[in-house]
């Protein structure tokens, strides 16, 4: 009985042993269960530590039971790789309008691990995120975040973000007199207000009428 003497958490190994009697009904056991477990002739490594594996053969009408033999397998923790997330500017618009909902392309983010990134918002008063849909709820900078938690082979990725500038629509209230008599009025003061409270600029697109 000569199993491999090393293993890695999260992997399995197939055990084999032979008896001088030629009997094949060899059973395996392992301890402690916190480090490794046995199913048939397969040992699973569940945590780092020393896995003690035993092999037994109970004998038959011609052979006595064999003396138990054991081996120690040193189980090492899985060495995880780092991963990086990227936002691809070609697959999302850096501008938006309040009340608008946009769907980001599945290619807007990618990871070096090929694991999918999860999108979120760090500015919920400006935008909210559901899946790959971004809804603009207020004016300002919408910060969309991307995270990847990792798995048994990859560490969690460092969060990355992208900024979308969100603007609100505005309307102008402008109600000047419909007509004036140039013989009595030489100058008219115009007033208008914008829903944004921004200053309104006036201009004329008509030429003076000369008679």
Please provide a written account of the structure.
The protein is mostly beta strands. About 0% of the residues lie in helices and about 40% in strands. It has strands at about 5-10, 10-15, 25-30, 35-40, 40-45, 50-55, 70-75, 85, 95, 100-105, 110, 120, 125-130, 135, 140-145, 160-165, 170-175, 190-195. The strands form six sheets. The protein has a four-stranded mixed β-sheet with strand order 1-7-6-3, with no helix packed on it. The chain has a four-stranded mixed β-sheet with strand order 9-16-15-12, with no helix packed on it.
Instruction: Give the helix proportion (percent range).
Output: under 10%
Number of DSSP helices? 0
Average pLDDT works out at 92
Name the helix and strand elements from N-terminus to C-terminus, one letter apiece: EEEEEEEEEEEEEEEEEE
Strand order of the largest sheet: 1-7-6-3
């Amino acid at each position: 009985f000569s199993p491999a003497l090393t293993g890695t958490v999260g992997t399995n190994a197939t055990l084999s042993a032979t008896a001088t009697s030629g009997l094949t009904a060899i059973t395996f056991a392992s301890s402690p269960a916190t480090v490794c477990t046995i199913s048939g002739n397969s040992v699973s490594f569940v945590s780092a530590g020393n896995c003690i594996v035993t092999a037994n053969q109970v004998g038959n009408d011609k052979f006595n039971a064999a003396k138990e033999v054991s081996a120690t397998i040193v189980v090492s923790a899985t060495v995880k790789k780092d991963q990086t997330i990227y936002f691809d500017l070609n697959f999302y618009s850096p501008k938006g309008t309040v009340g608008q909902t946009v769907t980001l392309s599945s290619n807007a983010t990618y990871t070096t691990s090929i694991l999918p990134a999860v999108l979120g918002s760090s500015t919920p008063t400006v935008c909210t995120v559901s899946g790959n849909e971004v809804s603009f709820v207020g004016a300002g900078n919408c910060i969309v975040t991307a995270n990847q938690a990792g798995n048994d082979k990859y560490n969690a990725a460092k969060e990355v973000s992208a900024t979308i500038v969100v603007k609100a629509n505005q309307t102008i209230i402008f109600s000047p007199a419909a007509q004036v008599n140039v013989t009595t009025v030489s100058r008219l003061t115009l007033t208008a207000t914008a829903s944004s409270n921004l200053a309104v600029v006036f201009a004329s697109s008509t030429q003076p009428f000369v008679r």
